[in-house]
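COMPLEX REQUEST
Ligand: BJW
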Amino acid sequence: MELALSEALLRRIREASWVTAFTGAGVSAESGVPTFRGTGGIWEKFRPEELASMDAFLRNPDLVWQWYAHRREVMAQVQPNPGHTALVRLERLFPGFALITQNIDNLHRRAGSATVYELHGNIERNFCSRCGELYRPEEGEVAGTVPRCHSCGGPVRPDVVWFGELLPEEEWNRSVAAARSADLFLSIGTSAVVYPAASLPMIARRAGAYLVEINPEPTPLTEIADELLAGRAGEILPQLADAAERIREGQRADEV
Ligand code: BJW
Ligand code: ZN
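STATUS: Structure written out below.
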């Protein structure tokens, strides 16, 4: 469906020095990675606290390991979609651009985005939950049991952020700075209910950014957003990138 962009958004695209994009599971849905919440979401089948927490891992490390091993396999098999690619195109158009993601699937980097802040970690990394030693994805795994650390014997875990855990400090600080710097902030494919990540659009809005949400469904953010572009990221983002290229590259041609 052809997207009619508002005058206000077109003006922001024309004038913006800094654009920040913030993504959630919805941006990878069209690649075939299930979302967490809503119809077909992962949490329909599993309770989050039974799998995505340190308590769960200590209670049943093999089960949690198997769950992540399965998801790692799914994520390795899928490909970036036109939404990911459009974000790579947008990055090239603005002097300042940051992509903050809650996703652990590595698809933004695989698509070619350069500045990516991964707030909830990356499923392609593991570390020892006791001594912190880093491990490669499948290293040491024996048919569905959690690998043990060579140095201390502790259970190895995925480098993802579970409930009750702190976000990686440097990624968080850079994300807050990118939210504050943004003239245009795009919140894409996230239910915006998991904190502290969900505060970033509000931080950006309070610092003066024009806040645009891209999601087929309304979220708690919709009320404070300047605009909701209701639809799928893989359909809306390419049209936004087309418009931005027309505007920004036309501008550059005028300057020559
Ligand atoms: C499309 C689409 C298409 C579909 N195109 N869109 C009570 C009140 C407030 C806070 C808390 C509270 N109790 C506990 C907390 C804190 C907690 C929290 O926020 N909980 C809330 C759920 C209530 N947060 C934390 O624990 C965080 N840490 C923390 O706060 O530390 C301080 C602390 C220390 C000690 C004690 C307490 C606090 C850490 C949060 C870590 C989140 N981890 C997960 C799992 C990561 C690993 C893994 O993948 O397994 O991160 S949970 C899960 O949710 C994952 C996601 O990154 C995150 C966000 O989900 P996301 O991306 O928004 O996905 P969905 O599925 O929710 O939404 C998809 C959206 O896409 C939908 O809107 C669709 O409509 C849309 N969509 N198709 C565009 N084609
Ligand atoms: Zn160890």
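REMARKS: Residues 34-77+124-160 form a domain with the SIR2/SIRT2 'Small Domain' fold (CATH 3.30.1600.10). The chain has two domains: 7-33+80-120+167-255, 34-77+124-160.
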